[in-house]
Amino acid sequence: MAATSEEAIKQFSALMEQLEEPLKTTVQNVHQGNLRGTLVRFLKAREWSAPKAHKMMLTMITTVDDLNYPEKTETYYIVNAPYVFSACWKVVKPLLQERTKKKIQVLYGSGRDELLKVMDYESLPHFCKREGPGSSRDSLDGVDCYSYDHPFHQQLYNYMKQQSLNQDSVGPRKQGSVHVDVPSPGLEEVKP
């Protein structure tokens, strides 16, 4: 698949190069300005598996497109971002140029309400159509899988409780130290 993917990426890059100049010339002649459009991209990394490997190729093509033609993308919307990402974004954002800051929008949860301001409901990716702040409410049956009341957590808790009752109480373990011999380098291994 590697050779086929590389060929597809090269063909895509060549196609973009061929389209770029005539399109730019046409738009400048008609509007007396630069090409201005909207391109929205989504990448859902969750639920990846080997049968979905063809999406990797699309991701690689999108990456090539992003790196070589970033001016075509007006805004990147990041949805369902974990808390850690949001925290890191708050630290990194002040360090970016204003133009870059405007291109990146980190949305809370699926970002459905914000995305509906710029696109139709039918255009939303399926993972943005669900309500709620994030993945904990993504289940189709409406059960919050992160809740302590979720059947899985109750079953796990009961199992652990049963296992602890089956073992004899032995008290706290003694904490000790372990000696580890670290070999010293020989004279030939020491470099001046």
Question: Secondary-structure map with pairings?
Answer:
Layout: H1 2-31, E1 40-41, H2 54-68, E2 75-78, H3 83-92, H4 98-103, E3 104-106, H5 112-115, H6 151-166
InterPro entries: CRAL-TRIO_dom, CRAL-TRIO_dom_sf, CRAL/TRIO_N_dom, CRAL/TRIO_N_dom_sf
Pfam family, one: CRAL_TRIO
Domain CRAL-TRIO: 1-125
Overview of this structure, please?
- With 192 residues, the chain is mainly α.
- The chain has two domains: 1-69, no CATH class; 74-140, no CATH class.
- Helices cover 42% and strands 5% of the residues.
- It has six helices and three strands; from the N terminus they run H-E-H-E-H-H-E-H-H.
- A three-stranded parallel sheet has the order 1-2-3.
- Helix 1 (2-31) crosses helix 2.
- The longest helix is centred in the first third of the chain and has 30 residues, at 2-31.
- Residues 30-35 and 133-138 have low confidence and may be disordered.
- Pfam families: CRAL_TRIO (PF00650).
- Residues 1-125 form the CRAL-TRIO domain.
- InterPro entries: CRAL-TRIO_dom, CRAL-TRIO_dom_sf, CRAL/TRIO_N_dom, CRAL/TRIO_N_dom_sf.
